[in-house]
């Protein structure tokens, strides 16, 4: 029997790097939903749809819902099980966070704040885009909206297709894809990364859903 357990702390995978100036969107309330699908090519390759990362925002306070994915392989019969792992409370103004476990209603005053720099271990596309400034940028449609499509090939022959809702006045409200949203001054909607030698693809999506009421937003009100 072969048992593999994968702990997917997507808060580390999708690091929360926010802009210093959030005042223009201080009334924004809702949730960012980040999706990630990995597809392999060839015999024996596997494809996974990872748990969606949910990042709830209310002004400068954020709660990230972190999911855990366990992968089991029993003589070739595989199973994926998704469950709640923990919540992170993030203070954008002070660039700090708290690990509050699974209980949203607990008293967190005694839980120490940690420097947000300690969570910066994840996707950072800055190096992918710093060595070559040759991009193909064109207007296209994505889900009926006019957006920018950026095509780019890295020095390692990875190719990127990025659909971006561009905002010329400022960059994205919350930069979740460092090196892309801040560089191209817009909000990533979808990105497809194709790896060389038919190794596979990775598809990322980002969507903001406005919310007026939610149990996590209610818990956030108690923390203010």
Describe the overall structure.
There is one protein chain. With 224 residues, the chain is mainly beta. 8% of the residues lie in helices and 46% in strands. Strands 1, 2, 3, 4, 5, 6, 7, 8, 9, 10, 11, 12 and 13 form a 13-stranded antiparallel beta sheet that branches. Mean pLDDT is 76; it is low at 1-26.
Main traits of this protein?
single chain, disordered N terminus, globular, 8% helix, mainly beta, 224 residues
**SSE run:** EHEEEEEEEHEEEEEH
Radius of gyration: 19 Å
What would the average pLDDT be, to the nearest integer? Answer: 76
Specify the biggest β-sheet.
13 strands, antiparallel
So what's the overall shape?
A: globular
Number of domains: 1
Number of strands: 13
Distance between the termini: 49 Å
Helix content: under 10%
Poorly predicted runs:
1-26
Structural class: mainly beta
Strand content: over 45%
Q: Please, how many helices?
A: 3
Would you summarize the structure shown here?
By secondary structure, this protein is mainly beta. The protein has three helices and 13 strands.
Secondary structure elements and pairings:
Blueprint: E1 2-3, H1 10-13, E2 29-40, E3 48-49, E4 53-58, E5 61-74, E6 77-91, E7 96-101, E8 114-115, H2 126-130, E9 136-142, E10 145-153, E11 159-166, E12 186-195, E13 200-210, H3 215-223
Antiparallel strand pairs: 1-5, 2-3, 2-4, 2-13, 4-5, 5-6, 6-7, 7-8, 9-10, 10-11, 11-12, 12-13
